[in-house]
Amino acid sequence: MDSALPESKTGLFYLKRVFGFILLMAMAATFFYSAYTKSGVEFRGFRLVDTPNATNAFDSFQWTFLDLGISSMVTAGVIARVLIGFEFMLGLFLLFHIYLRKFTYKAIIAVLTVFIIYLLVVILKQGNSGNCGCFGNKVSMTPLNAIWKNVAMIAVTVLLMYIYPVKPYRHQEYVGMVVAAIGFTVPFVVNMMYVGTAPVKYANPIDLNPLYQYTPAPAVDLRKGKHILALMSLTCPHCKKAAYLLQVIHREHPEIPIFIVLDGPEPYLKAFFDETHAEHVPYLFFRHTKEFEDMVNSGLKKGDHGGVPTIFWVNNGMIEYKSVYAYYQLDPKYMVHWLNAK
Fold first, then answer.
1. 15 belongs to a structural domain
2. Average confidence (pLDDT) over 208-232
3. Backbone angles phi, psi at 323, to 5 degrees
4. CB–CB of 103/179 below 8 Å?
5. Is the pLDDT of residue 322 over 70?
6. What is the dihedral of CA 172, 103, 192, 243, to 10 degrees?
7. Which of 52-66, 134-148, 149-163 has the lowest average pLDDT?
8. CA–CA separation, 180 vs 71, rounded Å?
9. Which of 73, 84, 85 has the alpha carbon at shortest distance from 193?
10. Does 204 lie in the same domain as 185?
């Protein structure tokens, strides 16, 4: 490939090209790895598999868009997949040297700048703690560490603009279209969209009196009015995911009356909140396991199985809906509609 700038082919010329090529491949690998670790799949040997750890990484990534004000779980899922696809596409564009100076370098700087702004917002809202999710669950990075990583990648990209300015080659536009189509399609293929986010309709009574027979009791009367009632165990990984999502919804939609009832060993309480950030959602640590299990099982239909997290949509002591698939059916769009329904 020819340089975009006339330059005698001296030793320095070849040194810059070799060094630039190495940096370019490192950048491509970084984008591939970032997309892979957030995609919701893993490789075992040469097989692509879905694992709970990988799924957790994707769920956490898509829920960040609910945290930014997106009101639909489906919309958040589409945006997450598109961004993962964009990262994958940038890696392919670097690998195949597609419009480096005209598009790819500029797009990298633009997207990394957006990521930096987002991470600054996260630090302002939640502090510099926890894993930012830039590399899923594979590499834990605080938001500040991720900002420095993105600044370094921008610096490398600017350097590449000067030492590795490759001219477009013939039929590059067709290669670019094919590569872009592959990049944006892969995240939707390897992690299929779940669109059944509506809760399941129920018509079961639930006895919430045990919550008020002991102290402390809930500050709100859950037996009156509409409430999203989540029954969770402190040691349940799926409960932690649901609690994390509920705290996002509570922060973005404070008008939705969410209440969490927690059961389990008290020493796990702090770790539960450290992981879920759900301590600001109204909750009760309920120390009476038998009564807790009775509430969980009160919503069972024929063919149902008990277990937590159990999330009921309660109206005046009646279960009107249940999030059967836990956090997948915690869509704020449906919650708001349910609250406003007469």
1. yes
2. 95
3. -80, 85
4. no
5. yes
6. 170
7. 52-66
8. 28
9. 73
10. no
User: Cα separation of 141 and 100, whole Å?
Assistant: 29
Same domain for 182 and 215:
no
Residue of 287, 291, 295 whose CA lies nearest to 231: 295
DSSP string, 188-247: HHHS------SPEEEEEE---GGGGSSSS--SS-TTSSEEEEEEEETT-HHHHHHHHHHH
Q: Rounded distance, CA 176 to CA 36, Å?
A: 21
The tokens for 62 are 């898509």
- Last residue of one domain, picked from the residues 190, 220, 239: 190
- 3-state SS, residue 176: helix
Does 195 reside within a domain? no
- Domain of 212 in residue numbering reads as 200-340
The pTM for the full model equals 0.73
Using alpha carbons, list the distances in angstroms from residue 191 to 65, 140, 197, 253. Answer: 17, 22, 16, 28
> What DSSP state is assigned to residue 166?
B
The count of structural domains within the chain is 2
Positive or negative: CA dihedral 63, 69, 74, 76 = negative
- 257 and 204 housed in the same domain: yes
Which of 220, 30, 56, 24 has the alpha carbon at shortest distance from 133?
A: 56
Same domain, 228 and 167: no
Instruction: Give Cβ neighbours of residue 197 (< 8 Å, ≥ 6 apart).
Output: 72, 73, 74, 328, 329, 330, 331, 333, 334
How far, in Å, CA of 23 to CA of 324, rounded? 48
Check whether residue 20 and residue 89 sit in a common domain. yes
